């Protein structure tokens, strides 16, 4: 496999999911930023809990409790960007990942893009954990991207009143 193909299929690639939602950005934003409900739109996330007072804001810490089959693990996330009703992003230091939600008004509703750019550096601990317990980093990335597509679809259905 050449380097370009490897970059688009391995763990170190941008993960992306998107949909056009027939609802205004403000409605989508209200659902997206209800972090207590986020687990209902994520196949891997069980719960998201704030670790500092002050609500959703840059610098806020959350612990995510994740589950894949019998494996359960926590991740700490730090909110990087809150630009209502356009961008929500957070960093997960243990994996080196940034998770970004972008909302753009379009004719007929809101374009929702959920993406994880190429991690700055997949941490050694993250790589070992994925290899030992999640079937490998590349396979886990594929599952994460499928979960992102499912999450965007569930957000679409909720925003459209379904």
Mean pLDDT: 84
Which strand-content bin applies to the residues? 35-45%
Radius of gyration: 16 Å
Low-confidence runs (pLDDT<50, min 5 residues)? 1-9, 132-136
Number of helices: 4
User: What assembly state would you assign to the polypeptide chains in this entry?
Assistant: single chain
Helix/strand structural class: alpha+beta
Molecular shape: globular
Helix content: 25-40%
Work out the number of β strands.
7
Give an account of the 3D structure:
It is built from 4 helices and 7 strands, in the order αβαββββββαα. It has helices spanning about 5-10, 25-30, 125-135, 135-160, and strands spanning about 15-20, 45-50, 60-70, 70-85, 85-90, 95-105, 110-115. The longest helix has 23 residues, at about 135-160. It starts with a helix and ends with a helix. The model is unreliable at about 1-10 and about 130-135 (pLDDT under 50).
Main attributes of the structure:
162 residues; alpha+beta; 7-stranded antiparallel beta sheet; disordered N terminus
């Amino acid at each position: 496999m050449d380097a370009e193909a490897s970059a688009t299929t391995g763990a170190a690639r941008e993960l992306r999911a998107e949909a056009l939602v027939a609802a205004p950005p403000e409605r989508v934003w209200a659902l997206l930023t209800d972090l207590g409900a986020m687990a209902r739109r994520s196949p891997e996330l069980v719960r998201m809990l704030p670790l500092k007072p002050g609500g959703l804001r840059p610098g806020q810490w959350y612990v995510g409790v994740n589950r894949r089959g019998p494996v359960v693990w926590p991740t700490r996330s730090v909110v990087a960007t809150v630009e209502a009703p356009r961008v929500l992003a957070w960093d997960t230091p243990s994996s080196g990942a940034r998770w970004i939600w972008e909302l753009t008004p379009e004719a007929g509703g809101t374009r929702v893009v959920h993406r994880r750019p190429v991690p700055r550096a997949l941490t050694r601990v993250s790589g070992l954990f994925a290899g030992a317990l999640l079937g490998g980093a590349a396979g886990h990335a594929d599952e994460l991207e499928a979960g992102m597509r499912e999450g965007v679809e569930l957000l679409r259905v909720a925003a459209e009143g379904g």
